[in-house]
Write a structure and sequence with these properties.
Blueprint: H1 4-18, E1 21-22, H2 23-30, H3 34-46, E2 51-53, E3 56-58, H4 69-73, H5 77-87, E4 96-99, H6 103-114, E5 120-124, H7 127-133, E6 139-143, E7 147-149, E8 154-156, H8 158-163, E9 169-174, E10 178-180, E11 184-187, H9 190-201, E12 203-209, E13 221-224, E14 231-235, H10 240-248, E15 252-256
Helix pairs in contact: 1-3, 2-3, 5-6, 6-7
Amino acid sequence: MLSIAERHKYILDSLNKYGFVRITDVANELGVTKVTIRKDVKILEGKGLLYKVHGSARPANPHVADLDVHVKDTMNRDAKRLIARRAIEMVEDDDSIIVASGSTIYAFAEEIKARTWRHLNIVTPFLRLGVLLNEADHVNVVQLGGCVHKKSLSVLGEETGRSLDDCICSKLFFGVDGIDPEHGITTSTIDEAKLTRKMMKAASRNIVLADSSKFGQRGFGRICSLEDVDAIVTDGGISEQMAAMIEEAGVDLVIVR
């Protein structure tokens, strides 16, 4: 029988390795009751060493705030650039795509601008992207209208969604604030979640661009379940356990290094 200290070390080591642990799994692995592990988790949470969430534990609070896009631009920049360079390979000449908003999406837009296209149609709610790609040759930008969300510099609302009724696109590329096996794909506002679902309906294939820090996180607005997206492009910081769970959901997981 393991001591309390040994159980605590096992839980914290598992968190460091996988990014989260389930109380049921730890109880089975250690041969103790779930009540025992719940008590252990409560003690560790009281010491500020983890965060307990409905039958599981995580190394930090998974709930994310709505950050300004300029703040997001400074975070995980190398990973976002790698993701953008891989995602651009999914775009074909003469494609018609929807490109959402966010810092990873802006890195993706910079890759679009750097390439030579025969013709490309892009539909976007992202004002920064519209300005950037307006300068690109053979790239036709359809800028959606609506109420400007100042933190994201993107338009939102019913008017924005109605504009998508006339669009039929091959792919949607969008960023997120959280990817969680239990709560699915999330973003920081309900309005953005609603618009993203509308964009998903206008596209044949839905592709998430997200650096590995987004896994295990939860935004306020739920976009969809994991099974509703076709592919996720991320960096090598994703844990093996999380990667396995994403692939088990039938999602094409592309990891760049």
